[in-house]
Design a protein that fits this description.
It is found in: Cytoplasm. Its EC number is 1.2.1.38. With 347 residues, this protein is an alpha/beta fold. α4 links the parallel β3 and β4. A 7-stranded mixed β-sheet has the order 8-9-7-10-13-12-11. It has a 6-stranded parallel β-sheet with strand order 2-1-3-4-6-5, sandwiched between helices. Helices cover 30% and strands 19% of the residues.
Length: 347
């Protein structure tokens, strides 16, 4: 049985980890930390977990966490980078759901997060936890940086096009919209139901922290610098991301939509959590709600020079905690879908 620790268990990604791991036959959560809730029973804060766990939140204790086989960090940025070095030294495997180890360049990380990185020596060793491109590296990793939610939806939608060199990498556009849970569980006026209900707005237009992560991943895939215009939006719903991606074909007219459909189907044929929909069918966020799936579809509108890819995920599952469990399974040699067989919730 895999012993699991979770640092930062009171947020949405923390409770989503607990929900998924409660159905994981090969794991046992033995420690969950929260300074603010230390001593409080888990099921008092999260009544949906009643009967699944007999645990209370505790103060972060490095010795206790180091006794675990795997530790998840479901924390804001600036937490994991202070504790991870000690856990790695103790031989514990770490999966970080925050942004602390996603960007390889420490100076670039500091530019976007406004402070020096506390353990920059580990950035080169952290494996970017997108299984669809790094499965072999994840299997050998001690430290995995779980991708962000927007990056997951956008990267999965663009990987086949950039790997094959079919699109111009210097002018890609991503217009993506997320439910309110993407902003976390802390109280914010902008996320109140009365503020978001019946409304739709853009934010972070001048620069979003996920941008350098996305450009880094896609540039490595394409072999040249990728320049992305990324505009996120806030949807008046709790879960889900819908990303609409626009890329200019290098040789318009040479590839039909049928050609690109085959490209995507062949690229993801053996991927358990990526579903390329039939041509002419468009993904919906509700179809992936609660599931560790990404659904994709694509079109070449009016047969011109731009391919449009649509990508949907649940931001808390494939965009965070589900992908983290998927990474754990790969790291430990378990079936990749262990604990992740949930079907999307309808309605």
């Amino acid at each position: 049985m895999v012993k699991v620790g979770i640092v930062g268990g009171t947020g949405y990604t923390g409770v989503e980890l607990l929900r998924l791991l409660a159905q994981h036959e090969d794991s046992e959560v033995v420690a969950i930390t929260s300074r603010a809730e230390a001593g409080r029973r888990l099921d008092e804060l999260f009544p949906n977990l009643r009967g699944y766990y007999d645990l209370a939140f505790s103060e972060p204790d490095v010795d206790l966490l180091a006794s675990c086989d795997v530790v998840f960090f479901a924390t804001p940025h600036n937490v994991a980078m202070h504790l991870v070095p000690e856990l790695l030294a103790a031989g514990t495997r770490v999966i970080d759901l925050s942004a602390d180890y996603r960007i390889r360049d420490a100076e670039l990380w500091s530019q976007w997060y406004g402070e020096p990185h506390a353990s920059p020596e580990l950035l080169a060793d952290a494996v970017y936890g997108l299984p669809e491109i790094n499965r072999e590296q994840i299997a050998k990793a001690q430290l995995v940086a779980c991708p962000g939610c927007y990056p997951t939806a956008i990267e999965l939608g663009l990987i086949p096009l950039l790997e094959s060199g079919l699109v111009e990498p210097s002018n890609i556009i991503a217009s993506a919209a997320s439910g309110t849970s993407g902003a976390g569980r802390q109280a914010k006026i902008d996320n109140l139901a009365s503020e978001v209900s019946g409304s739709f707005k853009a934010y972070g237009v001048g620069g979003h922290r996920h941008l350098p992560e996305i450009e880094q991943c896609l540039s490595l895939l394409s072999g040249s610098d990728v320049s992305l215009t990324f505009v996120p939006h806030l949807l008046p719903m709790v879960r889900g991301i819908h990303a609409t991606l626009f890329a200019r074909l290098n040789k318009p007219g040479e590839q039909s939509i049928e050609d690109l459909q085959r490209l995507f189907e062949n690229r993801y044929r053996d991927e358990p959590f990526v579903d390329v929909l039939p041509n002419g069918t468009f993904p919906q966020t509700r179809a992936v709600k609660g599931a560790n799936h990404c659904q994709l579809s694509l079109m070449i509108p009016q047969q011109r020079d731009t391919v449009v890819v649509m990508s949907t995920i649940d931001n808390l599952v494939k965009g965070a905690s589900g992908q983290a469990v998927q990474n754990m399974n790969i790291m430990l040699g378990l079936p990749e879908d262990r604990g992740l067989r949930q079907v999307g919730l309808l309605p």
